């Protein structure tokens, strides 16, 4: 690994102004969000601040993305909450130590995967599953904010549906003052996000200035809420953030002395995978815009170290967040220096602002969470996926409903298993085409889709899938049926252009097929075996049975050979 | 479904003698084996007899194999033992009812799979996994017989390794009389199986007579053991079978009133799958020899009904056994009438022989089990598999060691997961070849393996795997690397002859690739899209972006088009 990150080695002074401005703007958005995500995770609000200082600094030194902003993110926060609910069972000291363990373990997993170059493991969270998961996680998160937004007491429940069933009857106790304040805050935040820039430009502000003002909206709302709350002693009416310890805690590993941390391993693995997948997607989206490359294995190492630093800095699991990174990117960040400046501001806030933040109503933070995660909800993608591919759609829908019905982790696992199971099911009865020659070419295609030339003595069959244990019996059955239908066929040519791999079960099936065809007086030929498959087959009983004269480079070569042979036998 | 089985509709009188003889010989072998497998399952010996009467009759009426012999089998028996160990915890009445539930549930699963045509689910037990599992199950079974063969007390343990660790220190208490008798029995059985026929022929017996005498060997051993044991009051020295209730029990469903049967569902599913896979393999091996066809879905229904009948007949889970079926087949069975005759003999034995069998030493039954399962042990296949395909070999070894280390069910599940995981891992970083024209043909092959013609402006790339979520990122990375190396390339042609399927994640990747190439001033073309893939792609953004002029039937067509185009632009 290099000693200095690439962005620092070639730092251009011209980028300094952009980075400083972007870092400052991001910090403004980040402080309230950090508090909110910590509360979402069921932790004291200051934990969100701690996780926003050291981790982004580590990422800035190790990560391969120039603009990914790392810190507490909503989905990881709700996964932490779900993991700690049973583990800590209301004991807040235990929850805090558990969160640090989760950060340490998920960081450890990521480092391990990085060293073992197992980045491909994360590919097994398919786009549809990730999309279904994000939508369901966002809905679950919004559910968890209902108590804070209504003043009703609600037990945390593992799953959204049971949470809703549990809380619905209690909504009679809704505190109107809380709901009104929450509704006002959400409305203002939504206006800030979707309308304000347009209005400001309509009254003549320049576009950059309008955008800047829009960005400041959450800050304005938080500041106003603080002013009002401290003026009227808001704590009498609504739940407030309360005292936050001043400053940053010293680096510490005292959390390591926690009983039963082993129970968090599974959750940590899931948090690591989801955090990594989310970070990598965001990093790649940003990299494409700037034509940069992301190194997936480097990202594993960087995010692993980042999470381990979050553990000893008293924080919580972190990842590259979508909204955080987009703000940073849109604000003009050029390099990770912006992230370093953000982290500095947050550290200053932890020293200077904690007293000021005490009277902040929690409902304001809840409103910020709700508005932030709303953009994760995407039902259109479900419809789009379904239309293109039923199996993908089923996996996405299964993940979505699984998370809502059974909770964050079981739903995610269900979705991943569903995606893999459906893929395997698809390959278990593959497409097999009888093919013929496209006239005027040496190209062979499906006789049912193209007008092609065929010969009664030749049965040309193309197998469109790897031949492996899960489909070898189905392929054998399909081939047997084709043979039974082709009464005049003397030779069967298997065209293996679509076969990238033949495993031991597939080999056995082909051997018994060659045997069976021989007994029935037909010969088996193969064509277009790919190099890697041929390498493996060399020296097997199958190739010895077939002999070199039955193995052809191309379908055309097989046809030429066999037609020549039958002409010869016709002449004799 | 037809009312009469095919073999009965067209029964030839000429087959009657063969069937009667084969049925009788099989019965002779079956009676002691049925007792032994019941003991192996941790059940009273007579349960093995009950399971050998009604179930084969049901299979004879419903099955699609003419010679498969159904009854208690060793692997299913040890799976029953493993499932009931925790469930019954030494309560023999509970174990008995549990065994009936296992038969009922596994029968129910098979019927359900049959009605839903889910026979392909069984394909997911690959040959290597099944082979590793059989070997490990046989070793485990031999382990469980050590107490009976040595007179040492041994706790049943879930897994072979812990069993061995547990029993080794106790082997000091070995009873020499038991070991001597067991060694003699095993030796005689092995001689009967491997040597006797040769010796008899050497002294002038005809081959059929010698084979018949060999078949009678277990009967001779059992009869001698009974004679000796009743003469010297064997129960004083060794454990004996003891009183067996006379006759067959009435059909009964009283076992249904069992608490906690739900705990057996998982085990029943595994027993169903393994029993089905074993039965189907045996049936197919026999069918190939007689050129008959096996209907996998019909087999599901038949074995389902067979197991449910075993439950109400007071038996245990049954399957088509390898040794049982081979004896039946070798003895000349033509149809399922032989199985009906066997079942009749076993029923008669249950009425007539139970008193006589009481003094039979259990060590004789243990010896029969050991000799029977020895033929399941196959390490050569492990080596063969490993040499052909490392991943298959790993799955086989993993199953073998998993069963020995963690027990029958966890080991099997581990093996299945390993096989699937390794297959997916293989597809997750697929082979991608840059191709060129084989001279004098329209065939295109890997530039590194064949001497081919290429054109600097054209980058022809063949992808040898479906494009799906688990490999889309790796394919993108490989393509990007190829593009970076091909500095002069103006057009990239993706040859999709090896792609049987593109899922939503794959589509997204291709869309972003088309976009990226466009930005870089290159054009993307595709060739040899298979029919089913094209159907799915129709109407997607990708095809709209590409346009018809960038989609080519064959690689040759793409090359002709692109070379024509560059000539035109060169002329202009």
TrEMBL record, chains A, B:
<dbReference type="InterPro" id="IPR001902">
    <property type="entry name" value="SLC26A/SulP_fam"/>
</dbReference>
<keyword id="KW-1133">Transmembrane helix</keyword>
<keyword id="KW-0812">Transmembrane</keyword>
<feature type="domain" description="STAS">
    <location>
        <begin position="448"/>
        <end position="562"/>
    </location>
</feature>
<dbReference type="InterPro" id="IPR036513">
    <property type="entry name" value="STAS_dom_sf"/>
</dbReference>
<feature type="transmembrane region" description="Helical">
    <location>
        <begin position="300"/>
        <end position="323"/>
    </location>
</feature>
<dbReference type="InterPro" id="IPR002645">
    <property type="entry name" value="STAS_dom"/>
</dbReference>
<dbReference type="GO" id="GO:0008271">
    <property type="term" value="F:secondary active sulfate transmembrane transporter activity"/>
</dbReference>
<dbReference type="InterPro" id="IPR018045">
    <property type="entry name" value="S04_transporter_CS"/>
</dbReference>
<dbReference type="GO" id="GO:0016020">
    <property type="term" value="C:membrane"/>
</dbReference>
<feature type="transmembrane region" description="Helical">
    <location>
        <begin position="264"/>
        <end position="288"/>
    </location>
</feature>
<feature type="transmembrane region" description="Helical">
    <location>
        <begin position="360"/>
        <end position="377"/>
    </location>
</feature>
<protein>
    <submittedName>
        <fullName>SulP family sulfate permease</fullName>
    </submittedName>
</protein>
<feature type="transmembrane region" description="Helical">
    <location>
        <begin position="397"/>
        <end position="424"/>
    </location>
</feature>
<feature type="transmembrane region" description="Helical">
    <location>
        <begin position="176"/>
        <end position="196"/>
    </location>
</feature>
<dbReference type="Pfam" id="PF00916">
    <property type="entry name" value="Sulfate_transp"/>
</dbReference>
<dbReference type="InterPro" id="IPR011547">
    <property type="entry name" value="SLC26A/SulP_dom"/>
</dbReference>
<keyword id="KW-0472">Membrane</keyword>
<dbReference type="Pfam" id="PF01740">
    <property type="entry name" value="STAS"/>
</dbReference>
<feature type="transmembrane region" description="Helical">
    <location>
        <begin position="96"/>
        <end position="116"/>
    </location>
</feature>
<feature type="transmembrane region" description="Helical">
    <location>
        <begin position="335"/>
        <end position="353"/>
    </location>
</feature>
<feature type="transmembrane region" description="Helical">
    <location>
        <begin position="20"/>
        <end position="43"/>
    </location>
</feature>
<feature type="transmembrane region" description="Helical">
    <location>
        <begin position="63"/>
        <end position="84"/>
    </location>
</feature>
